[in-house]
Amino acid sequence: MEKKMRFGIKSKIIIGYLIVIVCLFIAFIVLNSQISSLQKERNFIIDHDIEVHDLTNRIEKHLLDMETGQRGYIITGEASYLEPYNSAASSWEKDYNALYQLLNNNPNQQEKLEKIKGSIQDWIEVAGEPTIALKRENNTKELQQFFEKDPGRQYMDDIRSQFSSFRNVEKKSTETRAAELDQKNQKIKIGLYGLLLFVTLISLAIAIVLSNSIVNTIKEVTQTIKRITASKGELKGRIKVRSNDEIKDLGIATNALLENIEERNWLQTNIAHAVTMYQGIASVDKLAEKFLFTVSEMTGASFGAFYVREENDKGDLFVKQAAFADRKGDAGRESFLIGEGLIGQAALEKRTLVINDVPDTYQLIASGLGDVKPKSIFIVPVLFEDEVIAVIELASLHEFTVLEQELISQVIETFGLTINGVIRRMEIARLLKESQAMTEELQAQSEELQTQSEELQMQSEELRMINEQLEERTKDAEEKSFELEAAKEDLEEKAHQLELNSQYKSEFLANMSHELRTPLNSILILSEMLEENAAKTLSEDEEEYARIIHSSGKDLLALINDILDLSKVESGKLEVLLAEMNMSELPDQIERNFSHVAEQKNVQLKINKAQDVPDIIHTDEKRFQQIVKNLLSNAFKFTESGSVTVSIQQVADHRLTTAMRTVDTDCWLEIAVTDTGIGIPKEKHQLIFEAFQQADGATVRKYGGTGLGLSICSEFAKLLGGWISLSSEVGKGSTFTLYLPSLSNGLVDYEKVNFAYEEVAVSVEEAVEEAKPEAEITEIDHPVQSVEPSLQDDENVFQDKRVLIVDDDQRNIFALKTALAKQGMTIMTAHNGIECLEMMKNSEPFDLILMDIMMPQMDGYEAMQKIRGELKLVDLPIIALTAKAMKNDREKCLEAGASDYISKPLDLNQLFSVMRVWLVN
C-alpha cells in the first residue's frame, strides 16, 4: 500500500501564505503599472506647462527690457540703457522658438504665438529702432512729434492682451489635464480597493480552510483524550488520527505515554501484591513456596527453584528450600557452593543473569503431554546488607520481558529484609524452644533452679527485643549515613558550581561593562560637544536633541553602574573606603542637587538638621551620598504635589537598641526622607527592597525605573553597618529612614551582631538580614596624587601640547581628538601598544599620553610597563582609560605605570581637570 504523503501544519500554512503573497504580487504589478502611467502624465503636466509659462514670462520680460532700455536711452541719451534693449532683442526670438516647439501639438496656440511675434516685430520696426535712431541723430523735434502720437503704446497694449489670452488658454489646458489625471487617480483608487477586497476574501477563504483542517483534527484528539479520562483509570483506549501531520505525531506520542503508564500501573500493582502476600509467614520454606508461586504467576514462568544460604565447614552453602513445577524433586540441584555453576557465579558477583540461548542439555519442563525445553532462564541473587542470602532461578517457555525483569528486580529489593527477618524469627524460635527445654529440665531438678530459669527466660526475651531494636537502629543509622554522604557530595558539587558561576558572572560583567562603556564614551563626549555648540552651527532644536542624547547616555551609564554595584555587593567584593565626612555640608549639597527638581515639579523641599548632629562622621562618603540621592530621587519621582522633607538627627541614647549598642561607634545617625506621594501598600514593603522589583506593574508603566535603586541602597546601608526602614500608607506618602553608625574603628562584624529590629522610637516593621557579605576595608590616609595648578597656568596650559591617544576604537579616537583639538592641543593616535611604542621611538617627545587598557596585540598594561622600563620615561604623564570598571582596576593601572586613572565613559570636565593637573605638574 502506498504510503500516505505527509502534509504538515507548517506546509499548510506556508502554502496558504504563498497563495496570498502571489495575489498580492499580482495586485502590486497591476497597481504599479497604473501608478507609472499616472506618474508619466503628471510629469508631462509639470514639465510641459511649467516650461510654457516660464518661456512666456521670459518673452514678456525681454519685451519689457527692450521698452525700458529704449525709453531710458531716449530720456537720458546714455548708451548703457541700450544694453538690456540689445540683449533682449537678441534673446526673445530664441525663447519664442523654444516655446513654439513646445506647442507643436497645439496649432491654435502656435497661431496666437505667430500673431504675438508679428506684434513684437511691428513694435521694434515702428517704435523701437526708429526712435533710437532719431535719438542718435539728436533729432529732438521728430522724437517729440513721434511721442505726441506714441504708436508704440498701442502695440504694447496689444501684445499684453495677446499674452493674457495665451496664458488663459494654457491655464485652462492645464486644468483640463489635471482633471483627467484626477479621474485616472480615482479609477486607480477604486481598483486598489477592489484588489484589496479580492485579496482579503482569498486570505479569509484560505484561513478558514486551513483552520478547519487543523481544528477538526485537534477536536478528534481532544474527544479521544476525554473518553480515556472519563473511563476512570481504564487506559485501554488509544487515540486514532487520520491526518498525516504533527497532530498525528502528538497522537502517537500520547499512545506511547498511555502504554508506558499502563505498564507502570501493572508493575506497581504486582509489586504491592507481592509485598503483601508474604506478610505473617514464619518459615523460610513456606515463604519460598509462596514467593515462587506468586512470581511465576506474574511473569508466566514455568519452572523455578529457591535457594537460601547456610553456613558450614566448606563455606557458604546455598540449599534448595522450594521449587515450582517440581517433578519428583528433580527441579534443580539440592545445593551449591558460591561460585559453583552459573547460579553460584551469579551469587558470587551479586548480579542478575538472563540467558535466552538455552542449551539443549538444560533441564526440561514437564507437562502432562511431555517435556518442553525452556526458552529463557532468569537467575536473581537476593541481597541483605550487601550480602547474598538467597538465590532464585526461574525458567520460562518464553523470553522474560524487560517489564517482567524489572518487576522481579524491584520485588527482591526488599525481599532480602523479609528473608532475614524470617530466618531471625526462626532462629529465635529455635533458641526459645531450646531454652524452654532447658528450663523444664532444670525445673525438675530444683525449684531454685526453676526460678533462675524463669529469670533467664525473661532476660532472654528482653535481649531479643533489645537486639531487634539495635538492628533497626543500625539499619536506620546506615541509611542516614548514606544519605548524609550523598548530601555532602551534592553540596560540594553545588559549591563548586556556584564558585564557577560567580567567576563566569564576574568575567561577563567585566566584558559587558567594557563593551557598553566603549561606544557610550563616544556618545557622551560627542553629544556634550554638540550640546555646547561652540561654533553656533546648531539650531535650538538640534541643541535639545544633543541634550537628550547626552542625558540618555548618562541614564544608561547609571544603570550599568547600578547593575555592577549590585553584582559586587552580592559577591561580597564591593570595596568600602572609610574616611571622614563633613555632615555640616550635607544640607547645602541636598539643596544644590534637588532644588531645581523641586521647582520643576512644584514640590516643596524641606531640610531639617538637628543641633546634636556631629560635624564629622566616619563612613564611605560615596556610598552614603548614593543612598541619600537615591532616596530623594524616589521621593520626587513618586510625589506629584505637596512636599519632600529631609530630617537629619542623632539617635538618642534611650532609643538605642541592644543590637545598636553592640556596635563600636561614636554615634548613630538617623536620616529620614518623607514625601507626600502615592505611598506603598504594607504587603509590598519587603518586596520593593528586592532587585528589579517595584510596588506593582502600574508603577513601572507610569513612573518607569529598573527597581534596582532601593535594593542597592539597602545593601550599601548594610555594608556601612546600618539599615533602611520604611513607614508608608497608600495615598498619604512614605518615610524611608536610614540608620547609620559612625565607623571610626572600621566596619561592623556581622558574624557577632544580630541586627533584629527593636523599638527605636517609631515602629520599625521590617527585619534586617543577620548575615552580611564580606567587604574589603580601605582606610583613606592620602589621595593618590593631587596637585593644584596656579591660576595663571590654567589659561594656556593646553596650548600646543603634544598628546598621544592610544585606543583601538575609532569612535573614541574621533571623539577625544575632536574635543582635545578644540583646546589647542596637537593630537597623534595609535591603535595598540606596539604602534604607541614605535611612535614614541620615532617622533618628537609627547607631553601626555591617554592610554586605553583593553587593546589587541599589546594591551595598555604591557605598553605602560615598557614605556616606564625600556624607554625610561618615568616622568611622562600617562592617564589610563578603561571601560572595565571592576575591582582593583585602578591599582593594576597604577602598578603598571599609569600616573592617573579615569573610567569610561569619560566626563570631559573630569578629563580636562586631570590633564591640567599633570600638564602643570
Strand order of the largest sheet: 3-2-1-8-7-4
Q: Which ranges are low-confidence, i.e. pLDDT below 50, for 5 or more consecutive residues?
A: 697-702, 750-795
Q: Please tally the β strands and state the result.
A: 21
Helix content estimate: 55-70%
Q: Tally the helices.
A: 22
Radius of gyration: 52 Å
The percent range for strand residues is 5-15%
Secondary structure class reads alpha/beta
What is the molecular shape? elongated
Rounded average pLDDT: 75
Q: For the terminal residues, how far apart are their CA atoms?
A: 95 Å
Description of the structure:
By secondary structure, the chain is an alpha/beta fold. It is 59% helix and 14% strand. It is built from 22 helices and 21 strands. The strands form five sheets. It has a six-stranded antiparallel β-sheet with strand order 3-2-1-8-7-4, sandwiched between helices. Helix 21 links the parallel strand 20 (878-882) and strand 21. Helix 6 runs parallel beside helix 9 and helix 10 packs across helix 18. The longest helix is centred in the middle third of the chain and has 86 residues, at 447-532. It is elongated, with a radius of gyration of 52 Å. Mean pLDDT is 75; it is low at 697-702 and 750-795.
